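Because discrete structure vocabularies remain unfamiliar, we turn briefly to a single example record, giving the amino acid sequence and backbone structure tokens:
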Amino acid sequence: LQDVLSHLSINPAVFARLDRGDAYAAARSKCLRRANAHECLTWLAASGQTGDAPPEFCPNLETFERCLHKD
């Protein structure tokens, strides 16, 4: 999760405060279930620049989009 946040240039403090921490807990849980782990790791390795848009397959897509460009 931290690698994805960094790659998307999402401020971890903003993400942690979203929905009083519930969004972080839910996103972390989805990542730990590893439903899309292979796709996620492939995406991280293939996209060379930070600031990319979240991938469409990500179960946390909507949550990440809520945080983009918030500070």
User: Anything to note?
Assistant: The radius of gyration is 11 Å. Helices lie at 2-7, 12-17, 22-33, 37-46, 61-67. The longest helix spans residues 22-33. Residues 8 and 53 are 7 Å apart (CA to CA).
